[in-house]
Design a protein that fits this description.
By secondary structure, the chain is an alpha/beta fold. The protein contains 9 helices and 13 strands. The protein has one domain: Alpha/Beta hydrolase fold, catalytic domain (Rossmann fold, 3-Layer(aba) Sandwich).
Length: 368
């Protein structure tokens, strides 16, 4: 059953208030990683780990009777739990016959009052990763940083290349690359609500690390600067233009480079107003325009729109460069503050389509 709108907003506002009261710690040093589970088909519960050492096990081999070289056998899906400092992450590696093959990596960032396991279940991204053979990692916020597990996207300290949360995600990516072969040119980040706002920060400040980002029910870069203003902005709508957010992103990145972006937002979202989705679209469209020819001259502009229905109806607007989409905005009619097409029985999840996870991967996979 979906969480009621008043409770959704209360949860988010409490999280903002707790962050403002100092729930966030300042430690930024990376600790030695501890892998809690690395087993074939490992359960999501780290206490039921396979190999507690964390060392990837060798692929099973057959031993031919004639003494010729053994043939590696397909290895099954693997779930890894690791921690960096006070935070942990969950990494899903799909079963593959050639484990050395480079894989795309999708970073999935949960919203407030969610865990990594919750978000994996709600989004169903593991199943898509298994089918399409990419890796997916779910960083998890620590209660010591925010008592309700919100990413502190509204903090000025986090809206920077030196932001604690951004650096944690980058460290998670680096560790994932040590555990499975990652194509560093095809790393993507997506999230819901506060997680979407963190994905926007990553795409804004680290465009060289993220091919594209996905923002579901999120906010543009520097949409707020304090917990108090964040609470007001979420409910009232954006106070900055897309160009202003793009300008801030250019300064943060320090380079003329833009990540591609897909934005999904419900037009019935009373927690994070739908106008915020439009503002993210404006931001990344402006960044794409600047990156195209180093000028804000509308050399890249919206040039395709369509409507569809897969459960709920939706409208899609796409900005393209050449034959490929660089920014896409999907507005889902009647969707509240919830993951579209998500698992039933979870808060912030609407089982009725369209399936946001499929839309995200379709956008990422189509990028050249």
């Amino acid at each position: 059953m979906l969480m009621s709108r008043p409770r959704q907003r209360l949860t988010l506002l409490i999280g903002l208030a707790l962050a403002a009261c100092g729930a966030r710690s300042e430690g930024r040093e990376r600790s030695t990683t501890k892998i809690d589970a690395f087993g074939k088909g490992a359960d999501d519960d780290p206490s039921k780990a396979g190999d507690p050492s964390g060392a990837p096990s060798a692929e099973p081999t057959s031993t031919p009777p004639d003494g010729t070289t053994a043939t590696p056998q397909p290895r099954p899906d693997t779930v890894v739990w690791g921690d960096i400092g006070e935070r942990r992450y969950r990494l899903f590696i799909p079963g593959t016959a050639a484990n050395a093959d480079q894989k795309a990596l999708v970073v999935m960032l949960h919203g407030c009052d969610q865990s990594a396991s919750d978000f994996a279940t709600v989004t169903g991204m593991d199943a898509i990763a298994r089918r399409e053979k990419f890796a997916v990692v779910y960083p998890e916020q620590a209660a010591s940083k925010n008592a309700l597990g919100c990413w502190n996207w509204f903090s000025v300290a986090e809206q920077a290349r030196a932001g604690d949360e951004a650096l944690f995600v980058l460290n998670v990516i680096d560790e994932a690359a040590q555990l499975t072969a990652i194509d560093e040119a095809r790393v993507f980040a997506a999230g819901l609500s506060a997680g979407a706002a963190l994905a926007v920060i990553l795409g804004s400040c680290y465009p060289e690390r993220f091919k594209a980002i996905g923002a579901h029910s999120g906010l543009a870069f520097k949409a707020a600067s304090t917990a108090a203003t964040a609470a007001w902005i979420m409910a009232a709508g954006p106070a900055y233009s897309g160009d202003a957010s793009a300008e801030g992103a250019k300064i943060c990145a320090g380079k003329m480079l833009a990540s591609s972006a897909i934005i999904i937002h419900g037009d019935a979202d009373a927690t994070v107003r739908p106008a915020h989705g439009s503002r993210i679209y404006d931001q990344f469209r402006a960044l794409a325009d600047w990156a195209d020819d180093a000028a804000r001259n509308n050399s890249v502009s919206p040039n395709e729109s369509s409507v569809g229905s897969d459960g709920k109806s939706y409208e899609r607007v796409v900005t393209k460069k050449g034959d490929g989409a660089v920014v896409e905005h999907i507005s889902v009619q009647g969707l509240a503050h919830a993951w579209s097409g998500g698992k039933s029985g979870f808060a912030y999840s609407d089982p009725e389509g369209p399936n946001a996870s499929e839309m995200l991967w379709a956008f990422f996979a189509a990028l050249p």
